[in-house]
Amino acid sequence: MSEDTPISVTMEKDGEVAVIIVNNPPVNALSWHVRQGLEDHFAAALSDDSVKAIVLRCAGATFIAGADISEFGKPPRGPDFNAVLNSIEAASKPVVAAIHGTALGGGLETALVCHYRIAVPSAKLGVPEVKLGLLPGAGGTQRLPRVVGVEAAATMTSTGDPLPAAKAKELGLVDELAGEDSLAADAIAFARAKIADGPRPTRTRPVFGEVAVIEQLKAANAKRWRGFEAPYANLACVEAATRLPFDEGLAFEREQFMKLMFGSQSAAQRHIFFAERQAAKIDGLPKDTKLRDIKKVGVIGAGTMGGGISMNFLQKGIPVTIVEMAQDALDRGVGVIRKNYDASAAKGRYKPEQVDQMMGLLTPTLGLEALADCDLIIEAVYENMDVKKDIFGKLDTIAKPGAILASNTSYLDIDEIATATSRPGDVLGMHFFSPANVMKLLEVVRGEKTAPDALATAMAIGKKIGKVAVVAGVCDGFIGNRMLKPRQLEAMNLLMEGATPAQVDKVHVEFGMPMGPFQMSDLAGVDIGWHRDPNRIESIRDALCAEGRWGQKKQAGFYDYDEKRTPSESARVTEIIEEFRKKSGVEKREITDQEIIERTLYPMVNEGALILSEGKAQRASDIDVVWIYGYGWPVYRGGPMFWAGLEGTDKIVAALEGHGFEIAPLLKEKAEAKTGF
Ligand code: 3H9
């Protein structure tokens, strides 16, 4: 151990039991110095004849939550993890892992080389590596099926979802449940009781269970895993465990792990892991900024958005007063909330009494005056500046001092809305994405005068209701919708030049998006933002709208739809496009899939660069988070700005220039330096 080695592992003795304690906040990750400490202290405990059994436990909030992800891709330091695990496994004295909080990834792999495991009832055990585009690469895929069987091991590794301690005990992953507050003592007593039994064999235990379950998992998750490499690699390793001797299985696992570790998917998924946590941080704001207390929320508008927004708070036990203009709209809105909760209850997500409880927290009303005692008021009426200003003007006279006044606008100017009040410091945007009770993204829009504590409170409440909140500056469409604009524009231009909606959409779906621009338009409503004058036909979209082709809701849009909303290519749309092409004298030509990528996705990167240099996003990774959680950008491509680095910013600039785009100076800079964002 050198002088600069942090002391993150210590050892105590309780009679014949040595207790090795890991203390590496915040999550006891297996940083190089933890591996070093484990190696040193296990060696010491094993060579001490007075020690007859060893307990491994952790200080702080959790057991070991995995390898230290921040070390990945850096030059190796400290002892090799597998070597440390092998020496624990080979210990001649029984080793007991004492688990609280979460035993995840490398943490569970460490527990798996221990001969016994004891856990508190609130503990969770899992191998979430797949969510980082990886697999448990320290023997997890080989040891787990020997303990819990093929089905549980295949499910745990390929989904990454952790098990509660009680379930883990049922499966034999945990030997005994400790008292919630007496783990340290219970583990010592358990270890003492195992001295006579000695270490329990691990590697020689046979794998049990049916391999057929692996194919069933693949079939059941085909949609969810589309494009991902890691779930399949995890399953291949579990399958290998069923037919290969332990050491060969380990070698296979290693090979698969290295392939994933040095591939672009895991790099992207690790980027998003940190990006999501980084997004919560507000530049220039002290970490200890005092938050405002949010005990009661007001929502204006009981339409789809208002209802969805309200559900987020009700689910967290926060009372909501919901306001509408007319009784029937209010009743309809409340009815939809109830219906949604009942549907979730039918799927087993809630008990009926929980639904009643949540609905009991909802106060429907027709007057804004009822919002006087709310700490946060979110306006979710239709997109019209005058209407919004009128509401905010009224709120100014009704809301209590210090209440946060938020607009759910998706593109309007928050600063202008704030001028309708005498308290612009309390005004900000909280832009939810539809369906608002499901989508994880929340853009928190910081106005010019938004007070720091109002902003910090909106971000914190976002986290509390389970959203990934990202700070955006005031601009047309904020981060997400602003980047959507150039994409939609070019998608339309491509139709004029010879591409079909189906071709453009196919390229996007193959890229990994849940749907393409035209499928999205049909789903959202082709008529959104349309001028509503059927005689004014200046674009393909105007022509579709004039004919009532408003999208899925009309069973006609860029595609034709049957009663089950199954799309098919539309001869009429082809005709409309042809007419427009002729009228504007554009020559039809073959459009390649590559050109579609270059003209619809590269311009998003260009717009992202503008957003960054204008300071409308705090950092490139925030833009990535917006696109992953708000629009379904494939996480294995890391968001548009991360992807730009993979693709090559120089290649992107060259292609955009070739297509006649004006290049954002920041993107040009990155291209010249041949770096990503
Ligand atoms: C692995 O184990 C591979 C092995 O098979 C080995 C193969 C050879 N490393 O999430 P939070 C940081 S792969 C480094 O906000 P929570 C995180 O960035 C790993 N840092 O807390 C944040 O930092 P900051 C498998 C980590 O209470 C802080 O800790 N394991 C790691 O909401 C707090 O995090 C996983 O994938 C890490 N492993 O949730 C588990 N984990 O404060 C990943 C966290 O600077 N971790 N940090 O922003 C988690 O799922 C959650 O962090 C956890 C706590 C549930 C543990």
UniProtKB/TrEMBL annotation:
Gene Ontology molecular function terms on file: (3S)-3-hydroxyacyl-CoA dehydrogenase (NAD+) activity; enoyl-CoA hydratase activity; isomerase activity; NAD+ binding
Domain 3-hydroxyacyl-CoA dehydrogenase NAD binding: 296-472
Pathway membership: Lipid metabolism; fatty acid beta-oxidation
Main localisation: other
Catalytic reaction equation(s): a (3S)-3-hydroxyacyl-CoA + NAD(+) = a 3-oxoacyl-CoA + NADH + H(+)
Keywords: Fatty acid metabolism, Isomerase, Lipid degradation, Lipid metabolism, Lyase, Multifunctional enzyme, NAD, Oxidoreductase, Peroxisome
Similarity section: In the N-terminal section; belongs to the enoyl-CoA hydratase/isomerase family.
Record's protein name: 3-hydroxyacyl-CoA dehydrogenase
